[in-house]
Amino acid sequence: MAFDETAGRLGHDYVTVSVDLDEKRVLFAVPGKGKACIKAAADDLRKHGGNPKAITTAACDMSAVFTAGIEKYLPKAMLTYD
Question: Which residues contact 77 (CB under 8 A, 6 or more apart)?
Fold first, then answer.
């Protein structure tokens, strides 16, 4: 999985997107940015029959809140910074 946030306007209206790097597709998008967005993506994965503990690789920018969210909600994932 990879995570990134973007803004509709510079500095406003953030959305965080999680993608499947193997399948090259969007898995989940949620308004906002940060640790809560990683939790929401992990919850959505569970809701669709996935297991957050089965995620072994995650990529994101060097955001401390993304790092904290991945460590907490995807505990088996090795983190790579993009």
Answer: 1, 55, 56, 57, 58, 70
What does the pLDDT look like over 68-81, one tens digit per residue? 999 999 999 999 99
Q: Are strands 12-20 and 78-81 parallel, antiparallel or unpaired?
A: unpaired
Provide Rg for the chain, Cα atoms: 12
Domains annotated on the chain, with CATH: 2-81 (3.30.420)
Q: How many CB atoms lie within 10 A of CB 4?
A: 16
Exposure class string for 43-71: b at 16+ Cβ within 10 A, else e: ebbeeeeeebeebeebbbeebeebbebbe
Tokens linked to 15: 């959305």
**Residue 62: pLDDT band with limits 50, 70, 90:** very high
